[in-house]
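Lab notebook: predicted structure, single chain.

Context: the supervisor wants predicted structures on file for every construct in the current expression panel, including those that have not yet been purified. This is the next one on the list. No modifications to the sequence; it matches the entry in the shared construct table.
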Amino acid sequence: MWIQFGISMVTFIALDALWLGLLMADFYRRHLGHLARMADGRLDPIWPVAALVYPALAGGLTVLVVSRARSPIEALALGAFFGLVTYAVYDLTNHSTLRDWPAILTITDIAWGAVLCGTTAWITYTLAKAS
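Prediction complete. Output recorded below exactly as produced.
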């Protein structure tokens, strides 16, 4: 299980860095900038706190998804559902409680959660079974 956890951690960090840092940086800055911690025009989270997201997601994915999956496709499907639910709780809570939380951010982030967690579960399952 520790190997799966490690694979999940590395995969989450790599994919999310690509998404947040390169592909969608302007999107998040444009839609979150008025609510977010910013420095020099960039999002500036409290990094030690933000870093706790990855072990939480990797642990949930390892215990609740990858350990139960019987095939790479099942890992993908269960992981996508895990991501959909996890990101929906976060985004729908923010959407319902924070003034000026954009609907497009809710929709995009929930979709990303499903893709991120589904892909991570598939990669984790595939690499863990190969080792």
